[in-house]
Sequence to fold (480 residues):
Amino acid sequence: MVIIENANIDDKLKILADSAKYDVACTSSGVERKAEKGSMGSTSACGICHSFAADGRCISLLKILYTNECIYNCKYCINRVTNDIPRVSFTPEEICSLTMEFYKRNYIEGLFLSSGILHTPDYTMELMIQTLKMLREDYHFGGYIHCKTIPGASSELVELAGWYADRMSINLELPTADGLKRLAPNKSRNAILNPMRQIQLGIDQSRRLLGMKGGNYSAYSYTRDRLAKKEPHLTSSKVLFDMPKIAPSSPAVLHRQSDSLTKRGFAPAGQSTQMIIGASGETDFEIMSVTEALYQKFDLKRVFYSAFINVNNDDELPSPADGPPLAREHRLYQADWLLRYYGFSASELLSDKRPNFNPFLDPKCDWALGHLEDFPVEINRADYDTLLRVPGIGVKSAGRIIKARRMGKVGFNDLKNMGVVLRRAVYFITCGGKMFSNALHIDEDFITKQLINKDTLLRNNTSESSITYKQMHLFDFIPQ
Fold:
C-alpha cells in the first residue's frame, strides 16, 4: 500500500474520482425539494442529467471516494489491500469545499460519496457522516446527496447517514452468497442485507410519519400493485434465494426525530444496489431472480449491473477474451425494465432450461417469439397490459394508444407517430384486423430472421410516404 502524504486537493481529486468510476449511479435524483432561504441548492425529481467522461465517470454528480485505503481484500477491486497503488484520503472540509465550488459553477447537481474501509467500517462511516453533516448544517447545502453504506457499520450510524442523504445504497457486490464468499472473503451476505433491511424499514417509517418526505414506492411495487388489482389471483413468481419478508408489525428503526433532521425525511429518494456481472459464473436467470427478490423484499428503486473488468489480473477471476461483458450488461438492464415497468417476472423471461438471454434479440422480443400463441395483438382492442407485452411498444406509447382509441381507430401511420418501434412491432400486431404486410406471417423462424437481419421486410414494404415522422395532432384521431 503506497500512502501519499501531503497530497494537495487536486491530486486527491484525480485519484479518488478515478477510483469511484466503478460504482454505477446513473439515476435521476428521485426527490423534489425547493431551495430554502439561507441555503444553497435544491433537487428536482428528474434533476440529474447524465454526461459521461471518457473514463466512465458521470460528471453530473461529484462522484468520489472518501478514501481509497482499504483493509479488505476483495479480489475484483482495484482498491484491495494487497494492491500497490497510490492511496489518499479527503478530509470532510475538502469534500465540502469541492462540492460547494463545483455546484456554484454548475458543474454538478449533487454528491455521490463512497469509500474504502479505513481502519474499521464504523470509523469510515463516522467520517462520511461527519462530511454529510457539515455539508448540510455548516454549508447549508440543499442539493442531492447519494451515500454508500459501509457493510458492517453499526445500525446507529446507518440511520444517521439516512437523515442527511437523499439516497442510500449498499452494494450486493455479487449475485450469490457463494460468489461473495469466494471473491470477497471479508464481506458477508448478512452484513449487506441487514443494513438494506434497516434502510427499507426506515424509509417506510419515515413515509408513514412524515408523508412523502419518506419517498414514494418503487416502480416495481406500483407495477405489481396495478396488476394485482386487475388480477387478484396474481402471485409473485418463485425466487431462487430466500430473503425474509417484512412483518407488518416491524419495530421502529428511526430514533432521531429532531427538526433539523426530519425536515428532509429519511433517505427520501430510496435505496439502490449494484451487482458485478461476469465475475463469479452466475447465469442470467440467477441474476434476474436475485434482482426480482430484491425488488420484492426490499422495495429498491434500482438494481445496477456492472460488467466485470479484470483490473487485478487475479488467477481466480475470469479473463474474457472480448473484454467486459457489456452486451450482457445491456440485456440485463433491458430485462430489469421489463420487471419494473412491464409486469414481467424472471421466470417468464428465463428458466433453468434456458438460463441466459439471447445475445441477438432483446428480452421482450425473445419472450414474444416463445409465446407466439398470444399474437397477433389487435391494437384497437387490446388492453394496456397486453399492449405492453408487444415488442416495440413501451409504457408511453401504450398509454398514447389507449387515449387515441377514444377518438377513433388507430392505424400503422398513427403508431409511428406515437413512438411505437414498428420495425419490431409489425410482426406481432394487427390494426383493424390487418397486418402491416401480406408477406408477414406468425412463424418463429421467419420473424427471428427478420429481426436479426435488420428488418429487411419492413423496409421493403414501406414507401417514403406511407410512414412518416411528424408531430401528433389531435385531429389525426378524429374520424373525418
In short: The chain has two domains: 2-169+186-273, 363-477.
